[in-house]
Amino acid sequence: MGSIHDVALENNNVACQPNPLDPEEFRRQSHMMVDFIADYYHNVDKYPVLSQVSPGYLRECLPDSAPNHAEPIEAILQDVRNHIIPGITHWQSPNYYAYFPSSGSIAGFLGEMLSVGFNVVGFNWMSSPAATELETIVMDWLGKILNLPKQFLFSGGGGGVLQGTTCEAILCTVTAARDKVLNKIGRDRIGDLVVYCSDQTHCALKKAAQIAGIHPDNIRALQTRRSDAFGLCPETLRSALADDVSEGLVPLYLCATVGTTSSTAVDPLRGLCEVAAEHDIWVHIDAAYAGSACICPEFRHFIDGVEGANSFSFNAHKWFFTTLDCCCMWVKEPQHLVNALSTNPEYLRNNATESKKVVDYKDWQIALSRRFRSLKLWMVLRSYGVANLRNSIRSHVNMAELFEELVTKDERFEVVVPRNFSMVCFRLRPPLGGLSARDCGLETTNAITKRLLDAVNATGKVFVTHAVVGGVYLIRFAVGSPLTEERHVRSAWMVVREQAEALLAEFKVHPVMQEQADAVLTQAVHG
Amino acid sequence: MGSIHDVALENNNVACQPNPLDPEEFRRQSHMMVDFIADYYHNVDKYPVLSQVSPGYLRECLPDSAPNHAEPIEAILQDVRNHIIPGITHWQSPNYYAYFPSSGSIAGFLGEMLSVGFNVVGFNWMSSPAATELETIVMDWLGKILNLPKQFLFSGGGGGVLQGTTCEAILCTVTAARDKVLNKIGRDRIGDLVVYCSDQTHCALKKAAQIAGIHPDNIRALQTRRSDAFGLCPETLRSALADDVSEGLVPLYLCATVGTTSSTAVDPLRGLCEVAAEHDIWVHIDAAYAGSACICPEFRHFIDGVEGANSFSFNAHKWFFTTLDCCCMWVKEPQHLVNALSTNPEYLRNNATESKKVVDYKDWQIALSRRFRSLKLWMVLRSYGVANLRNSIRSHVNMAELFEELVTKDERFEVVVPRNFSMVCFRLRPPLGGLSARDCGLETTNAITKRLLDAVNATGKVFVTHAVVGGVYLIRFAVGSPLTEERHVRSAWMVVREQAEALLAEFKVHPVMQEQADAVLTQAVHG
């Protein structure tokens, strides 16, 4: 903190300092940053995919407080190289197969640059008409590519909006559904509302419902079965609805999923929407990952039945090249969003809004402020064109097929659930190595597959993550990083195989050494 | 939608298409975009600040659907020039004085580029350790610059987090406060919880409280008075709390503001926190705009009393050069956020989280996914240094002082409320032109000041917005766009004066033409 003397000294310099947005300095430094990032992409396959640092590593590299005086960009970039990059898990690496992809592209990057460059705050139409209008146009474009029913498009009385994430999309629609019902039955009954999903639904649903004040006991994660490929059976929903109604509760909302996080399972939309309609509950379809695939005619059938839903969303930042964050959401009746989320303070009143000829997107989302996200979606659609975008999706699916084939051909492994899109779920197939079938129960196989996952990730050559489905621990291999090519997938398979060989070798013990084998097994299972 | 034949055709091209993240193509196109944006900054003062387009203009310029084939970046940039820029309200223009500033800078832009380039999804520590660790470090740096009490820093048991916007910050803290109380008194009492603010508080509070399921009747916008400079009087709060408690309701949360949107009024934090403590309610301090100024020792007193609050936030994207979006929030007890917002699905389990040695920011916010926002804050702090940042704030305040002086010296105008930071609230001073004092009641003066605002904005040379405080319609002149210099402020004043002269000339009628004068007045007031 400065003394009064410092303040006076600083004040003398007010006029001399460079403008923080000086165009020529902007040009110089931004060109430098472009080269830095281009070089990063050249080298990204050489870094350990999963960062290998330990908790607290960065506090040891950086000072305890911000500098008082300006530092040159060169020094900052040096620190990025030395201290930040080692702490990054490289989602843009061609060897990244974890979670779901975070899909960057040149067009997505340029769209963000332009959005950040303009730096407009498009909460209402007037604050930057192009920001609102481009979003309505691009959401109609994308809705048509997905062959969404006309009621979801602006041209059909509905409309699309860009949220940051699926969590926000779900929170907005739960809130809209909630207020629609409470306005009828009375605010005091908030504790009676019930929200439905499956035990495979993303945790965003539970979190959003809780934020919206739904009683935690009233969030039903309905059980799925292997025999339904972990999709939610409409009869299960029907029975849950009947139970709740008989208890005097009020069914509110169903979140159905196309492409679950654990295993890319697909809920049967048509059947679920029919059951939901019997109780007039809001149906939201979360196609966060798999929605992108549905731009291909051969995958479109996965969202058949969407016409029965109230809202639909997918994350263009996952598998549609826009960079984080860009969740595309459509609703049939925007008025329910507006009723629940609008604010009309005096300081935002303006003639355009009062003319009722414009969309004010602040009333379709949680926050007031919003970035000009549609630029990146527009640039992706134009820079690549629909045909190339479909082909990119297909090339990822083809690579996943290749990996699936490699897994299937190796008898030490098995594919756990059918592959729908570009993700393969696999595990070690019992019996393992020299272990007897008796020793290879579910717990053991799970524990050893987890050890395989850790070993693969520790190589730094590949990053994969896991899920547990129907009690089975599986490794998820999700293809979708833009830089991934067939050769990377083949290398990844080599890494998995090598690590599995090393691991299984531990169990190739001679029968007389059974005691030692037991010890190894105990270690494997209990860590 | 393609036929099967098309699909086959497209499939043949899978291998030939360029990689969407090809480093050399990335370099080429990104350099082009840098130059495009640098040129935009060179010319931004030449565009009408407030976009002059009409609703629906863009649908007439763009095709009805996305292109099937790729288009070159040159064609897209041409469309940005021809169709997007005319529809932009130029928040980066030096002649922008509306709402609050959206403060861009070279460092903020570079930080975003880097964040988008890495495109990591930092929901938990493991997903990119640097993203989490840099955020904890930079939030401690910034907390120290603001001289926040140690309990708000990680080094003191609290901690900071970057939210997108203040709306999110408020929603997260309302939810945390809500669950803390409901876990004690029972979930069924959600309808009894009461949230407090003043009639000057930003609409984000009401929206967040409603999303969180607080009964709309239980949001108290307590009246402020001109005699308190529109700050919330602690006695008003005390009395409201007592009333609610006597009704059996449960006081939950107070949002106090430092620098209100309408007039940059400041609530007396110390007194409010003392009253709030009597009922153990959560106090959040929203310093969205004015928090940035508090890095200067001479403005720090405006947040005196923050030590009594539970959480504090300000928007670095408003007046701290980070570009949208970057809301800095600190809490004393992060555990309450985690209790309300955490999710622990199997597919996110990992060894680092289980070691309990790391922060997983997904549990401090609404969404799961999160961008690497701390990069831009870090780059702003290092590129400029604390001394320059203070001086930038001061130069904006100095320019606002200058404008205030110009307004004060002209007897046709008056400053409506005392200026605290870099915003001047002014209006036409009655009596206006040739009108009698009798004719210049509040309604008339308000209506004519609104006409002045519309006339000023219609020139395209300046963009200002309005508020109504204590019934008085006023024009807000908020300095803070990075490119604004003293000469721009002087020009803006000339525009205001010229438009006022033209407007007031309408009322300089001869007494015998009283009928005509009445007609003009009616037109002025009723549009």
From TrEMBL, chains A, B:
Pfam families: Pyridoxal_deC. GO terms for molecular function: carboxy-lyase activity; pyridoxal phosphate binding. Its cofactor is pyridoxal 5'-phosphate. The modification N6-(pyridoxal phosphate)lysine is found at residue 318. It comes from the Eukaryota. The keyword Lyase applies. One of its GO terms (cellular component) is cytoplasm. GO terms for biological process: amino acid metabolic process; carboxylic acid metabolic process; phenol-containing compound biosynthetic process; primary amino compound biosynthetic process. Keywords: Decarboxylase, Lyase, Pyridoxal phosphate. Belongs to the group II decarboxylase family. PANTHER family: GROUP II PYRIDOXAL-5-PHOSPHATE DECARBOXYLASE, TYROSINE DECARBOXYLASE. This is Tyrosine decarboxylase. It comes from Ensete ventricosum (Abyssinian banana). The lineage of its organism: Eukaryota, Viridiplantae, Streptophyta, Embryophyta, Tracheophyta.
